[in-house]
Description:
Elements: H1 19-27, H2 29-32, E1 47-51, H3 91-96, H4 108-124, E2 135-140, H5 147-158, E3 165-170, H6 178-182, H7 190-195, H8 201-204, E4 206-207, E5 213-216, H9 225-229, H10 232-243, E6 248-253, H11 262-267, E7 272-278, H12 284-293, E8 300-305
Parallel strand pairs: 1-8, 2-6, 2-7, 3-5, 3-6, 7-8
Antiparallel strand pairs: 4-5
Helix pairs in contact: 4-5
Amino acid sequence: MSGSSNMTGKSTSQPGPSLIERAAEVYDFGTALRHGPAAAIAKPIPLVESVQAVEPEVAPVQALVEVTAEPDAGELHIVHELRGERHLLDWATLNADGFVDPERPPTSLSEEFRIIKRQLLAQTFAADATARDRLVLINSAHPGDGKTWITINLALSLSAESDMEVLLIDGDFGKPSIATQLGLPDGPGFMDALADSSLDVADLVVRTDIPSLTVLRAGRQLHNDTEILASERTRAVLNGLVKGHPRRIVLFDSPPALAASAASELARHVGMVMLVVRADWTSDAALRDAVQLLSACPNIRAVLNGVKFSSSGRLFGAYYKKRGD
């Protein structure tokens, strides 16, 4: 049995064990994540899926701005329409970098994200799901695990759904990269809406050339971002976003759990955390610590990233090129 192709297009000539299997031996997802003194974790993390490649995260830095007053909580304002400015995505760069393109034929990568999103949608839109379940945080233990890369690809994959509205929020205030990666201009965003109750979050989103995909940039970098995320104002803003549209799903990119405290506060507001675990890289101790910090979210699931072999012989993408099979 031959190995599958990786993101570089080069085929592996020697069969080998799946990195999912190798990672399972290293991490022992069942034992390592059971409740215990060392981990203080309520339940094991289910493995959602695996992705074949890791992309480095871009990290532009914004100027430090301080606020002198706590934002007002305000009343719940249901956001029915996201009416911000419109900009085209930089498809030339996105395609060159190998991101999912909803308008192009299926590839191995797009098929893998289809599997991930189907499991995600099955939970967020289940019969007993709440509005909070449509708030999803994508996180990782450390920088470089592919968190932002997976967030953008998942958002692009979800945008292909015929009846869905996807809002992608950059919550990595210290090192925002969503707008840069998508080719969008800098401007006010999520933190501005949270810190200033006179601003309407609906006016700060960026509409894209994909009708179902909107983006909310990180906005200002503040010294007290964690405290603002813990405020009732944040809860009101997020509740207004999801309660305003029954088919709207919100994806958050955030700082790595072990790098900044903002991630643990965002976890208090969302219904699911997708924890990106880089195969043969993320340590067992880092995984335990990250899960504990994010444990305010009732539903944490793992996405194994950096897998280069498929023991089952997956042929995603290639299948569509073989008519008659």
